[in-house]
Write a structure and sequence with these properties.
Blueprint lengths: L3 E6 L20 H10 L2 E7 L20 E4 L2 E4 L25 E5 L22 H7 L4 E7 L1 H14 L3 E10 L6 H12 L2 E3 L5
Parallel strand pairs: 1-2, 1-6, 2-5, 6-7, 7-8
Antiparallel strand pairs: 3-4
Helix pairs in contact: 3-4
The structure holds pyrazine-2-carboxylic acid and zinc ion (ZN).
Amino acid sequence: MADEALVVIDLQNDFCPGGALAVAGGDEIVPLVNDLIRRTDHVVLTQDWHPAGHSSFASSHPGSQPFTTIDMPYGQQTLWPDHCIQGSLGSDFHSGLAWTKAELVIRKGFRSEIDSYSAFFENDRTTPTGLAGYLRERGIDRLILAGLATDFCVGFSALDAISQGFKTTVRLDACRGIDLNGSLEAMLHRMRDAGVTLEDHLSD
Ligand code: VGL
Ligand code: ZN
């Protein structure tokens, strides 16, 4: 439908098995996402895209370990292994992803001093990526989200999509989560409470 877009979140090598920040089963969703791409008129991709030495990397904070949190000027930030470094193989889309139909690629996390989980706003929750304006100008008001990771980039994108006035569905069967200290369950609750439609098409 013309007023609907599929937003595929961060389906990149580093988030798939063998990658620097591998999400369990991350590669399993590729066929489902490709099917969604085939069936949707408008496709947007996001690409996690960090400069080397990014402030979300544990390696940038001597003495810190990945998967712990630190306080940043904009709030709490989880520290990650180095991942999705601009132009690296790990930052490439999964080789099986049928990405050529995409009309737009939103790159995020490209500022050294701030991370960006959401496709709409960076982690200070105020710096826009431009995606909301792009979609509005295109007359798109309904979004389907799929990709990695359910409890971080997909989840925050869905919450922001709702706050920006888009009718938003997350295809949980075409997502996989990191699940750090209960983050998956917590994000599912937050999305449900915010009015995100959560769909699981396991039998499709
Ligand atoms: C993501 C952690 C760090 C994601 C990106 O795509 O969910 N998670 N960078
Ligand atoms: Zn990242």
